[in-house]
Amino acid sequence: MRLSKLFPVTGQDIVTGFVLRAPFFYGLDSVIGALAEGKPQPRESAARMTPIGRDPEMNGSNAFAIAPKRMADGKTWLISNSHQPYEGQVAWYEAVTHSGEGLDMAGALFPGSPFVLLGHNRNLGWTNTVNRPDLVDVYKLVLNEAGDKYRFDGKWITLQTKRIWLPVKFGPFTLPVPQTVYRSIHGPVIKNEKGAFAVRYAGIDSVKAVEQYYRNTKAKDWAEWSKSMAIGGIPATNFVYADKTGRVAYIYNALFPDRKPGFDYTGELPGDTSAALWNGPVGFDRYPKIVDPASGFVQNANNNPFLAAGPGSEMKPSDYSPYLGIERGMTNRGLRATELLAADKSITPEELLAIKMDTVYSKQSWVGAWMASFAALDLKDDPDLEKAQKLLATWDWSSDGSGAADAFAERIIRLGARSNWRGDPMPDARKTLKEAADEFKLRFGRIDPPLADIQRLRRGAVDMAMLGGTDALRATTMWDPDQADKKARVRHGDSFIMLVRWDKDGALKSESIQPYGAATTRPESTHYTDQMKLFVAGKYKPVHFEWADAVKNAKRRYRP
């Protein structure tokens, strides 16, 4: 059997899986990888929900919670809009669960999770977006000549060592390879040609994440749910919350190290003094959060957390310690969401869903400055580049497919998005313009192909136009260009979307959609591609949350 060595699975295995995966929320693997190779530390970037391989910095999500006073229908709305890969081990898996112990939840999870990670129960719901706090610190140790002790507060302490055996594949064989692992008072230690470095990270040695998800799921109201959040088990990610009473809330959740003043925690720290060694995390009372804002809404799209509730309801950055390492960047998605929600005092359901599907780029966003850099180029010496420049000048600032420049503008935006997300200097505009123009002429024979022609949602025999943009609320974050016809297959962006609302009596209704279908790995199933048409059209299917409703609508009942 393919999984013959997997079972039996124990509770300890499940907890271990959570503990191993949790640090990927905030980029610990990048730090460890750089240290292991003796390379400079990367910029702190938690721009990932899980390890997804290529281009992790391009991840994102959108989340909205709207109070009844802001909605024309008088209902409480929660929109979950995660951005994950469309296929693979961290593509969302949708489920509805019920148990005799009260674990009643609908939403999405990754294979192997014992709980639904985002969604709703009867009384409340939540969703997540990636945040990017600085949760990893690296300490340079001072070793003795033998390399078996390190200096700490004037004393020499023996470096802990442990011999482990790693199973390594050599062709058809798996052989045990011995390795020595090290640990100091700070945390795990990595030795390279530049010395010995200890890593201290949020949630180190903690297994509380499983408990917190369990208690979040079982919570019946805000008091129980916020008490669960105070457990401090989930190391990072924003939470956007709503419940049947009309309460909405935003929490910038992170296991912030309780750092002491006097050190630059974004760089290499001295490992020979307890003055730089933090304990923590800080208490839940110190997390940035906003509950029931006057604006009547909260939103986050991987943007500045202090702007979660719009003009007049902002949090004050000065109320929070700079040592928490909270990012201050702004995505186009976050800017557009705030602009659109704040401008409408009585939002109809149709208007709210249109906001979710917005394809416009704000000229006040980073894209505005990026496009201005191309308009400023003097290209009289290169007629081909000047033609590309003029095409960009006609762009209508939307990726809805109606403009001749939409596809080319999206390529230009993609070529700048990674640098913007990381906070790096933006690429050279002239070189970028040439790269995009040369690529389009080679791939499509023209620089102005219609966006709908080249940006496709494909699986099996189904091939459909997929509109939206890299940093638009209707997100098509990444293209897979390795297609026989050289077109671009969307492989990452809007993935699992869930619409939840409660009326004034607390009655629940929810809908959801996925890019492909529920049968993620079975091409022979009708559910391999059956949601694609709805997904492309921005439509949804009902979630049959209650058991009686599920049975009524079931096509087949079976016990695995």
Protein described:
- The chain contains 13 helices and 24 strands.
- The chain has helices at residues 11-21, 28-36, 208-218, 222-229, 332-343, 349-356, 366-375, 383-393, 406-422, 429-444, 451-454, 532-537, 547-553; strands at residues 60-66, 76-85, 93-97, 105-109, 118-120, 124-129, 136-140, 149-152, 155-158, 160-170, 173-183, 188-192, 195-201, 236-243, 248-254, 268-270, 289-291, 297-300, 455-459, 462-465, 478-480, 488-502, 508-513, 541-542.
- It is α+β, with helices and mostly antiparallel strands and 560 residues long.
- The protein is globular.
- Helix content is 23%, strand content 26%.
- α3 packs antiparallel against α4 and α8 (383-393) crosses α10 (429-444).
- The strands form 4 sheets. Strands 1, 2, 18, 19, 20, 21, 22, 23 and 24 form a 9-stranded mixed sheet that branches. A 7-stranded antiparallel sheet has the order 3-4-5-6-14-15-17, with no helix packed on it.
- The longest helix is centred in the last third of the chain and has 17 residues, at 406-422.
- Residues 44-56 have low confidence and may be disordered.
Question: How many beta-strand segments?
Answer: 24
Q: Mind describing the biggest β-sheet?
A: 9 strands, mixed
Helical fraction: 10-25%
Cα gyration radius (Å): 25 Å
Shape, per Cα inertia axes: globular
Strand content: 25-35%
Give average pLDDT, whole number. Answer: 92
- Terminal residue distance: 16 Å
Helical segment tally? 13
What are the low-pLDDT stretches, counting only 5+ consecutive residues below 50?
44-56
Secondary-structure-derived class: alpha+beta
